[in-house]
Amino acid sequence: MQLNPYLMFNGQCETAFKFYEQCLGGKIINMMTYGESPDSYMLDKLPTEWRNKIMHVSLMVDNQELMGSDNPPEYYEQPKGFSVSISLKDPVEAERIFHTLAENGQEKMPFQQTFWAYRFGMVLDQFGISWMINCDPSVNN
Q1: Is 59 in a helix, a strand, or coil?
Q2: Residues 101 and 133 sit within 8 Å (Cβ to Cβ)
């Protein structure tokens, strides 16, 4: 079994994933717009301006996959009740990722030492996605 986060956006999926690709040092391996879909039934129901929105994207970071799409407005719900958690051993890289995700977003918990981690912080990024960055150099990931 493999569990992968699948993030839903309200039209900014492509921008978000290009940002995540740079921030996390990953590689987008698949990106398809609604207009590229072979499903003509679905295309007939979509507003014309949504044909360039993302139907599916996959980002590989090491051997982890983060996926996402744009949900048409009538199906979109603001993300809540979850966070994407990242665990790192390198404190410098963990802090860089934390601060990059916080750009134009909101720090929910400062990146600091906790009783469970060398460093930990929480951020709501500019796209409305909640992240937890955990760093413990002594743990074998």
Answers
A1: strand
A2: yes
